[in-house]
Amino acid sequence: MTTSDQLGPPAVDIVAPSGQVVRKATIAGAIGSFVEWYDYGIYGLLGTYLAINIMGEAGAGGLLLTNVGFLVSFIARPFGSIICGYLGDRLGRKSLLAALLVLISASTAAIGLIPSHAMIGVAAPVLLVALRVLQGFSAGGEVAGAMSFVGEYAPTPRRNFAMSFIAVGSFVALMFGSVFSAILITALGDSTMTSWAWRLPFLLAVPLGYVGFYIRRRLEETPHFQALRERNSVPRNPLKTTFTSRRHLKAIALTIFLPALNGPGYYLLFVYMPTYLKTSLGEGHNFSMLPALAVTAFSLIAIVICIPLMARLSDRVGRKPVLTVSAVAMAVVSYPMFLLITTGTFALAAIATVVLAIAFSGHAAVVHTVLAEMFPTTVRYSAYSIGFNISTVIFGGSAPLVMTALIKSTGSSLVPAFASILTALITLVSIAFLRETKGQPLAAG
User: Is 215 in contact with 31 (CB distance < 8 Å)?
Assistant: First the structure.
């Protein structure tokens, strides 16, 4: 059984991979995503401990500096997207994705080895920022590469469902990080975590990275990229091809604004949320770290369940309807749910974050499939990666830093709700310019 993949004359048929091969590719993408986003996410989950040990300050100033480190990694992401996108479209997806796992795992483990501020002074935050740059560079190439990899293996009718497990892997990684951190806090106590045990989740990156690297190295290159090689159609300079095409530039612009909701949805609701619950609700309402992680874990369970369901729905009714409903839902529920969160009541906060997770799940399940489907195989890694990582700098990487600063200056803990509403509206407007891609074969060039 073959599909043409729109290669044009002379056509080269792409042999559709077996279901077993597709499942292996999906598992490899999901496990790789788990490793990448566990490594990347625990920085946000353990931000308060980093503020104390690396920045040398437990208060708002130390937290602000820690969030600067969060932002720095996002500034590095577009550079990673340019270099990794070029290599991925020029040389292939598989080997590059395996190498990225090694890079982010090594830099994450090194964070767990940084001497404290009390020992080496300002060198501690300098080392942290340098390692965050390496993490950001790696993450800049990971998302588009992993999504392209699985998307180029997946059968057209079930493409979104297959690709959704990469998103599931990222949220399972955050859930694992939350649960592991909660277990450490329960078993060792907050004082021990503050003293030295905060390093353990970072050091766990070494075995996790090895597992992900081993799995990715064992897979073959995607059939779509192999077809380009057989036709000798791999572009010599995919970046030039991307930036000299008006069609690709328009698609990149849409790739920047369509995922606007991803910033508050992903980084505020899941990565920044434990820090927000512990530090930003006001006197008498702040959570301790363990309940804050538990609240986040409930929302992560909800979104992990919902993402495959939303992806399957998208494969049936289309990408645009699911994205639209999700953006509208986030715009409607954000303010009342954050009101519940700011009460400082555990049950209400858990309910609110679960509702927000369900509302966001349609966006999380579909947006990356749409971005991959917008570009042909010749420039998919480059163009998708560049546009999406610019978007994350604008709407995602600055989120914790901006939220912390605005909450401090305004005295309002509802600032994240307004950010969520604003970005939901930006995404909603962008959907109007989106062409429906459900059921369409991936373009080759």
Answer: yes
Is 163 contained in some domain?
yes
3, containing H or E segment: strand 2-3
Q: Does 5 reside within a domain? A: no
Assign residue 285 the CATH number of its domain: 1.20.1250.20
Residue 207 domain-assigned (yes or no): yes
Beta-bridge mates of residue 2: 15
The full DSSP string for 318-382 is -HHHHHHHHHHHHHHHHHHHHHHHTTT-HHHHHHHHHHHHHHHHHHHHHHHHHHHHTS-TTTHHH
Binned at pLDDT 50, 70 and 90, residue 2 comes out as very low
Length of the chain: 445
Cα dihedral sign for 182, 187, 192, 196? Answer: negative
Residue with tokens 């200056």: 409
**368 touches 218 (CB < 8 A):** no
Domain of residue 360, residue span: 14-431
d(CA 46, CA 268): 14
Q: Are 96 and 87 in contact (CB under 8 A)?
A: yes
Indicate the pLDDT class of residue 67, thresholds 50, 70 and 90.
low
pLDDT digits (tens, 9 = 90+) for 193-231: 889 999 999 999 899 888 888 888 888 889 999 888 888
Instruction: Give me the pLDDT at residue 8, please.
Output: 35
pLDDT in tens, 277-321: 887 776 767 888 788 888 988 999 999 999 999 999 999 999 999
* Distance from C-alpha of 271 to C-alpha of 277, rounded to nearest angstrom: 11
Q: In whole angstroms, what separates CA 300 from the centre of its chain? A: 13
Residue 129: Cβ-neighbour burial (10 angstroms; 0-12, 13-18, 19+): middle
> How much of the chain is helix, strand and coil, in % rounded to 5?
80, 0, 20
CA angle 433, 438, 443 (to 5 degrees): 85
Tokens representing 290 are 């363990």
Structurally, the chain folds into a number of domains equal to: 1
Query: Residue 398's CB: how many other CB atoms inside 10 A?
Result: 19
Residue 248 located in a structural domain:
yes
- Under the banding of pLDDT at 50, 70 and 90, the label for residue 383 is very high
Answer yes or no: are the C-beta atoms of 367 and 323 closer than 8 Å: yes
Tell me the Cα Rg of the chain.
21
Q: What is the pLDDT of residue 403?
A: 73
